[in-house]
Amino acid sequence: MKRLLLFSLLLCLFACGSDDESIECNIEEVSPCCAITPLEAEIELGASYYVPNVFTPNGDGFNDLFGPYLSDSIDLLMSFRVANSDDQEMFSVMDVPPNALFGFWDGKYQDTIYQGHFNFQIQVRTTSGLVRSDSGKACSVICDGSDTPVEVENRGNCGFGTQNNGNGEYDPFLPNLEREACLGG
Prior knowledge:
This protein is mostly beta strands.
């Protein structure tokens, strides 16, 4: 639990105070975001990971970074790649310690905050040496701070980074910490 609290604090400090420009909200791009199922994988007993299906890189300190949340029984994020629908790489890391901040994408692509669907690929290694690779889809939603709600289908299926239970698992009963107008609930 202490590790999760420390990680959350570091994540918040890293993500807060962004002055980067973001793009306008495109309803057609973000509406179906939560129809995508968050990625949950259990490799062996105690070795699991969770990758959210949505994040909100708006600099408010909650869900501003995108990446995999790994259990203690995973000793290495061997690779993590994020690409747009044209397969243009937007973020990539290799050989990252579990849950290290530099293994998370801040949403920037070509000097702006990317919004919409994207693809990701992940490969991890457990402490027992097993390797697993997965791929999936997720979505970046820009919340501009206004009180105008972001229209998203299947809002209840949105899985956020703040809903990781600290053991590499998704817990939909944990609060997502987003404002109601920004996919909160």
